[in-house]
Design goal:
The protein contains 13 helices and five strands. The chain has a five-stranded antiparallel beta sheet with strand order 2-1-5-4-3. The chain is α+β, with helices and mostly antiparallel strands.
Length: about 280
């Protein structure tokens, strides 16, 4: 087995995608009539459907250091029914020459212009995260909606930690399960691009130990890169808020993302969010 963590992650990714796909979904109509010990597809079935040898596919899934052509990757994407996010993830893990588009800054710097931009959105909650999904900066309304970021320990500003470890978030988000899976799918992509950063391994180990829901979702290996997360929030003061999330990368290779939340224009969320903005005193 290769010592390259990217190869090991590639093997795990392929295995989870193979096991989630039923023979019927893969077009093997008669496979269900045989006695099977394997959940999902067998390795030999994936190899046959992709037109590659079983030893070669087995080596790939075991994380061995072998060259993978674009043609083979395309075949695996087709056989495993990968969506665009998963396809991008597969290509990234397979290309040893490709490096993460994010830097390894220990202390991310928030520019004054970005802070100014956040303050110019008084009616939309907004905050900035890094590649680890730590909240680096936020505006007044983000605190009113999501709770304080400044008064907590820096480790508790991580959105993954907050989603799984804060009991208040279970009631705040009406669709907690879907939202948690979406956030973790995005985090999985970031992890795949920073496999040499020990912070991720330590954080994942801690979350797996302390949150059964995190452990289950992490094991499922969801991959999502969408920049829109519809959120229904049951706010204790404002009531029901229907928000759409837009996530924008901040400059190329910065590793920072701007998250903005816009209210539904038809159901009264605009007015309820505006009242919340007026009700909470501004503090820095």
């Amino acid at each position: 087995m290769s010592d390259d963590p990217r190869r090991q992650e590639l093997g795990s990714f392929l295995r989870t995608r193979r096991l989630r796909l039923s023979p019927k979904e893969a077009g093997l109509q008669h496979a269900e009539f045989t006695r099977r010990r394997t959940k999902g597809l067998r390795r030999e079935e994936v190899a046959a459907l992709a037109g590659i040898s079983l030893p070669w596919y087995t080596s790939l899934e075991q994380g061995r250091d072998i060259n993978v052509s674009e043609q083979v990757l395309d075949s695996l994407c087709r056989v495993l029914r990968l969506d665009q996010d998963e396809r991008n993830h597969l290509y990234f893990l397979s290309n040893s020459r490709q490096t993460a588009f994010l830097p390894r800054e220990k202390e991310p710097v928030i520019s004054p212009s970005l802070t100014y931009l956040l303050d110019q959105m008084p009616l939309c909650p907004a905050y900035v995260t890094d590649a680890k999904m730590n909240v680096l900066a936020w505006n007044h309304l983000a605190v009113s909606v999501f709770g304080s970021f400044g008064a907590v320990d820096s480790s508790e500003r991580n959105m993954i930690w907050r989603m799984f470890m804060l009991p208040a978030y279970r009631t705040l988000f009406a669709d907690w399960d879907d939202l948690a899976a979406s956030l973790l799918g995005h985090f999985r992509v970031m992890y795949g691009q920073h496999l040499d950063d020990l912070w991720y391994a330590e954080f994942i180990a801690s979350m797996t130990e302390n949150s059964p829901e995190f452990a289950t979702m992490w094991e499922s290996y969801d991959v999502r890169c969408t920049n829109q997360y519809p959120q229904v929030i049951t706010h204790p003061q404002a009531g029901r808020l229907n928000l759409s999330t837009l996530v924008f990368p901040i400059q190329y290779r910065s590793g920072q993302f701007l998250h903005t939340y816009t209210p539904d224009l038809q159901d009264g969320s605009v007015e309820r969010l505006a009242k919340l903005a007026q009700a909470t005193p501004i503090s820095h």
